[in-house]
Design brief:
By secondary structure, the chain is α/β, with parallel strands linked by helices. It contains 15 helices and 13 strands. Strands 1, 4, 5, 6, 7, 8, 11, 12 and 13 form a nine-stranded mixed beta sheet that branches. Strands 2-3 form a two-stranded antiparallel ribbon. It has a two-stranded antiparallel sheet with strand order 9-10. The chain is globular. It starts with 14 loop residues before the first helix and ends in a 9-residue tail after the last helix.
Length: about 500
């Protein structure tokens, strides 16, 4: 090996060269995510001064988070925030309904930030009231209104805390990244919420990636949603595949190499590094390399075991809807998420559906009916399974999307049966550790347009998750990377117990 002698490495092997030599192919994400338990590894990898110790700042309520993201923007109106006024005043324009015109509300411009000139940007400004495309019912003892498209999730409503006053500022699909980073696409990119959790907390299982991603990222331009940026690539999400033969892409032992042969190779490398460690006892980078070989080898066994859904009984598979074709994909991903948190993964980001599939500019009834059918049983199955296993005391579930859909009928392209993007007010829900049960927080106006004050920008959701994990974003500040006040948000304390 060639040793680089410059100010960055000072006689040590460079990180890129090390991971190339390691031969794992996933550029250090998987192995790097496990190196941080050794403080020496932090220093060797160039982590910022003052990096967290890996312990919570305060007593945590949750040990792990399952973050369920539905790409494309589901309609809050046809899911968790039905508005009877849309049916009553259907076909009228906003200014003819007996409510304040939401397009004239100062909140509209205050919370809007378009990359398109305002004089030609007509998004979310359609004034003709469009009726609800599905019925709804009051569910459970709590009586929370939930769409008839979601009967299974509705059956779990007494375990949910629904937040109906979320908003974001991007009215295009870059809001998918904004939902995870807290930043508009016109701003400097920030680490994702999963990366902050990874950065702040130690591992509960040294054999699995601390921040795992199932079903995504959905496209190359949504990789931002799992990236760590200036926190370092070792804190980024590690995508896992549902392919039982290759659950850790690019991290599979070559078929020509027997397990015993590979183990012998790792053992020999370890012995050589240990000998070098005797000669250079203060070389923290060397100690990090020794540990990385050991952990990378163990992950090759641990990840396939965690993603082996065949180990589950038929009753569990039916609970998640894996026995039905229309719910199989989402069901497998939800079940994989449960298996990961059960084994100590800190943050699991799950994409039950492909990129943009909830984006119902036209044929909303057809599209949302189909999409709800695909995720209703799998998500409810996850909630019920966590509850029956006692994991609701340790795991917080977040169910979210990038924005809602407009109360007005979208008119672009001769539209007649869809809703446009709507960042001004939408709904998410939380469940599990530290979260109130059967509770609704916040509201939108009578037409479901604006999140009523105090509305919650997306980083309030981030702050809530960090708070439940015993973290505080201000205490995670990186020297030289001062964040804006909006990046920190405030925990939604009203939904917490």
């Amino acid at each position: 090996m060639r040793f680089e002698r410059n100010s960055g490495f000072c006689g040590r092997i460079g990180r890129r060269q090390f991971f190339a030599d390691l031969g794992m192919g996933f550029t250090g994400l998987a192995a790097g995510s496990l190196l941080l338990d050794d403080g020496a590894a932090r220093a060797a990898e160039g982590d910022p001064a003052g990096a967290p110790s890996g312990r919570p700042f305060t007593t945590p309520r949750a040990k792990s988070v399952i973050w369920i993201f539905l790409s494309g923007g589901y309609s809050h109106l046809e899911t968790f925030d039905p508005k009877p006024a849309l049916n009553k005043y259907s076909g009228l324009t906003f200014d003819k309904a007996p409510f304040p015109d939401p397009l004239k509300n100062p909140l509209h411009d205050k919370r809007s930030r378009s990359v398109v000139a305002s004089d030609i940007n007509v998004r979310d400004k359609y004034p003709i009231i469009y009726p609800l495309q599905v019925g709804w019912s009051k569910r459970g003892q709590s009586g929370i209104e939930v769409s008839d498209w979601l009967p299974e999730i509705g059956g779990c409503v007494d375990d949910l805390a629904v937040v109906r006053s979320m908003y974001t500022t991007d009215n295009d699909h870059a809001a998918e990244n904004q939902m995870h980073t807290g930043r508009h696409r016109l701003d400097e990119i920030q680490p994702s919420i999963g990366a902050w959790v990874h950065y702040g907390l130690g591992s509960l299982n040294d054999n699995l990636p601390r921040f795992s991603v199932v079903g995504g990222p959905t496209r190359a331009d949504t990789r931002t949603s799992i990236n760590a940026y200036y926190l370092g690539p070792q804190h980024a999400g590690v995508p896992l595949s549902m392919d039982p033969a290759n659950p850790l892409p690019y991290g599979v032992r070559h078929p020509d190499v027997l397990p015993e042969e590979q183990k012998n190779e790792f053992d020999q490398i370890g012995e050589l590094n240990t000998l070098a460690g005797v000669e250079y006892p203060h070389d923290v980078s060397l100690r990090a390399r020794i540990k990385s070989y050991e952990l990378a080898f163990r992950m090759q066994a641990a990840v396939p075991e965690a993603m082996n859904l065949k180990a589950e009984d038929e009753a569990t598979r039916r609970l998640y809807g894996i026995d039905k074709e229309n719910t199989r994909v989402a069901g497998e991903r939800m079940l994989a998420a449960r298996r990961l948190v059960e084994r100590g993964v800190r943050f699991v980001q799950v994409y039950p559906t492909p990129y943009g599939t909830w984006d119902s500019h036209q044929k909303l009834k057809e599209n949302h009916g189909r999409q709800c059918g695909a995720i209703d049983r799998p998500v409810a199955g996850l909630l019920r399974d966590l509850k029956q296993r006692g994991l609701m005391d340790d795991v917080t579930v977040v169910f979210c999307t990038e924005f809602g859909r407009t109360p007005g009928l979208e008119l672009r392209g001769g539209g007649k049966d869809g809703r446009d993007h709507h960042p001004h007010g939408f709904s998410v829900f939380l469940a599990g550790a530290g979260v109130k049960k059967g509770y609704v927080h916040g509201a939108t106006d009578e037409l479901g347009f604006h999140a009523l004050e105090p509305g919650h920008y997306v980083t309030d959701l981030h702050a809530t998750v960090l708070h439940l994990m015993g973290l505080d974003s201000r205490r995670l500040e990186v020297p030289g990377r001062r964040r804006l006040e909006v990046d920190h948000g405030k925990p939604i304390l009203d939904i917490l117990v």
